[in-house]
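User: what does the whole thing look like in 3D?
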Amino acid sequence: MLEIKNFSKTYKGGIKAVDNLSLTVDSGDIFGFVGHNGAGKTTTIRAIAGVMDFDEGDILINDMSIKKDPVGCKKILAYIPDSPDLYGYLTGIQYLNFIADIYSIGKLQREENIKTFADALGLTPSLGDLISSYSHGMRQKLAVISALIHSPKLMILDEPFVGLDPKAAHTLKGIMREMCRQGSSIFFSTHVLDVAEKLCNKVAIIKSGKLIACGDVATVTGDKSLEDVFMELIEE
Amino acid sequence: MNKLWALVRVQLMSAFGINKMIKSRDKKEKRKLIGFAILMVFVGASLLFSLIIYDFMFADMFSKAGVPELLPALMMAASSVVTFITTVYKTNGLIFGFKDFDMTMALPVRTRVVVASRLAVLYLMNVGFCLLINIPSAIVYLFFASPPATYYWFLPVLILFIPLIPMIIGTAIGSLVTAVSSKFRHANIISIVVMLAVTIAAIAFSTSVQTMIIQPETSSDAIMNVAYKMYPPARLYTKALCSSSIVSLAVFVISSLALFLVFALVLSRFYNIINTALTTSRARSNYRITTLKVSSALMALYRRELRRYFSSPLYVLNTATGMVLALILGIALLFFKPVQLEMLIEAPGFADLLVTMSPMIITVMVCMSCTTSCSISLEGTSLWIIKSLPISADTIFKSKLLVNLTITIPAAVISAVLLALALPINALQVLFLILTPIAFAVLTAEFGLLMNLLHPNFTWTTETTVIKQSLPVTITVLGGMAVSILLLVGLVKIPSSLQTIGLVVITLAAFTADVILYRLLKIKGTQLFKTL
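Assistant: Here's the predicted 3D structure for the full assembly of 768 residues, as structure tokens:
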């Protein structure tokens, strides 16, 4: 579903944020991407989502290159950044309808999807209000609903649980598991290693732009916890 | 004091990109900022030059009428009007409702220091305008009168105090507009209408005063009374400056300062309450999912862009005033004949110009109305949304261009029809009265978008930075107006038999440029968008 091939990103001024990163996410995977602050997680995620341009390497989504066919790739993926700034001048429902229009979702399907996910996350009563009146958590919930509206095959999430209340976080985990059971894939970054260990079947650790561990959670951790493995690798 | 200076400094750095210019390691970025600084210096110098010309014209006229001291009085009143309008526009965004409000208020700084820092930046900006307007007129005045020795001592003191009273009135009106509008669902429409009315009233008032002043039959006393009626503190200012009145100086300085201090204290006292009232809206939280309307991607983007446009009164006022003036001109011509209008606005030759050059007059107003030159920057931290959606850059560009054309073309066509009804022009002239503004409307929109793609800014904390103070907006509006005015003057200068051909050539050239720029946007613009 997702194949990152020798991806590197150098920012202006010569700073190499990501260095020759390669990994694969298969259908049905919940893939956790962990690393310290400034390790290159967000840079990688933004490149996968087609939000950021890059020169070296390639990223394939369902065998389509994000460089060569960005629109084709974006049709089947959904992206939520770490701090989703949404359009404050729209109401929640206007925003969701806007996203549904862009993905050409039919009338009945959009109404059904919005109702299902908004009810699940407890946001339905607030959908008529302006997004500018929303709290951080409500914006995060709205971003999650907008990402699910077109039933994506691949979800790219940057720190998805930050700002969500415990109930919403629990609901989101359930939605993620259900999506993967139906054959979609999820690739997300997190600092909460406990969540990564319990939720993911695969995990990758990035340090200073380089991949230092990648594979099934059980293989990467062995008989230790993910936190212990992470600390050992980071301190090496 | 250190805390106050720290807060002022950080705002100044953000407002003018000074910090980026000094600290940026990116040479391209640095070059852009230096280019912008040079352009602003050029704009300032051009403005200064025009002001000096006007000062000499007025000084000559006033001195012949025996009231040379009217020049400093008039300029003082003019700078007060500028301060007032600037303050009304900037209250929401600079004093209240600024983006880093929470971060600033969480600092271990007293509220009155935060308020003082916001007012200080506004004051610095306004005092800049006051110096720009009053210093040249004060120098020109010396050529026409022999003021007392105190003139040189009182002048700098007086200028520093000019912005205070207009700032109080401006902040009060700006807050009131924001407060009233925040209580309604379609709040911004109310803000836009009120602010537009204030701007047009200020323009109309200045024009009527100017008209009265340049009428030869007006007596010098009447002129003085008009100036003082226009702005009463102008009387104190003139008496202090030109008649060496220490009492007037003291009253002007002390009353301005006292009123300002009282205002600042009241503002500090209720700052949090006012800011919360102005910036929070009550959520109804009773929504139920009903039938949703389905649209195409382009229509969805267009509707979003239009909502973005009308969500910001500043954006609308900065880009729609030209078209409102075009409509006012069209409507005025239904009630006044061109000759009457010429007499009304005291512009000799305007009636002839209106008949022969009406397409270019509307074109000048169209060129003032560019929404695209900041539409990319205004995506701000929400840019990720359009970048992650499955839509081509071309579709996004179309939606932004369409919004600009929605603002300009209907207003231009309505104005054209009104002008066609009122003016004695033939069918060919009517055709170009419609076609020429349309050609330039498309050109302005495309050029503005390209400029913004070349010079985007996503790190703004107040919309004012990108809507009013950014390089792409300055280049597009000033460039567009300069080109259209030059073409207008060029057409006037050529023999009248060639004027229609000239207009045809200009219109065809503009349509050709439209096609070329659109292709450039599709290729170069798409590349630029990818790198954002």
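In plain terms: Chain A has one domain: 2-235. The first helix of chain A runs from residue 41 to 48.
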